Amino acid sequence: MEYEDRRTIATPEGVQLALPLAGIGTRFMATLIDLLLGFSIAFVAVLFAGALGGRVAAAIVGAAAALSVFVVYNVVFEVFGGGRTLGHRAAGLRVVADGGSPVGLRASLIRNTIRIVEFGFGFYLPAVISILVTRNNQRLGDIAAGSLVIRETRAPVYEQPQPVIPPAQFASWDVTGVGDAELAAVRTFLERRHSLAPGTRAALAGELVEKLRPRVPGVRPGLHDEQFLEYLAAAKSGPSAPPVGGSAPPYG
């Protein structure tokens, strides 16, 4: 389950994109890291409050700290940290909406408020059961919020191409096997790629290349996925065509 579960979604380009779902092992590790970090800070805060203000102050700080550990911390990192808490970063996970887009404030609040209930009834036992029995490895909070926890896919290092593509790069390509619908999907991806998360961007480019590269004889080996798509769009559009959507910046 940890390495094979996928959630397949249809993108606006008509390509089926597979999101690798996080399993219970990596999710447990991420949660444990977050809880250890959060409760360590909360423990120090409670001790400090108790020393200064007594039991009442310690109780107030303790309640506020518990709310922060379960809700505030997670919401801040999920909404403003690219869907990744510190535990998620360490485990290579990310929280996204069930369509693959970044998780929003409302969804994050829902999934993390329900986290309190999951923790209070059997120390995450309801969450564990839900992850094991649901199709998309979702705990109760994920189901209510419409969110998924996925494993990060690392994008390959990309070398920036020239602003104008020389015709020699694709002069020997036979692009007659690529139709208008496929070209439209390529051009849409190239125009939208800068707004996509690196992992989603690389995965979507890989899906397009896997489908189209066999239809284009003459492609030299070792060509990066996005460069292939840029050259393909240029070859179909005419010589010396600039890259659609601008040349892609390096990323890792």
TrEMBL record:
The chain crosses the membrane at residues 28-49, 56-76, 114-133. It is found in: Membrane. It is a multi-pass membrane protein. Coiled coil: none annotated. It holds the Pfam family RDD. Keywords: Membrane, Transmembrane, Transmembrane helix. InterPro entries: RDD. It comes from the Bacteria. Residues 21-146 form the RDD domain. This is RDD family protein. The lineage of its organism: Bacteria, Bacillati, Actinomycetota, Thermoleophilia, Solirubrobacterales.
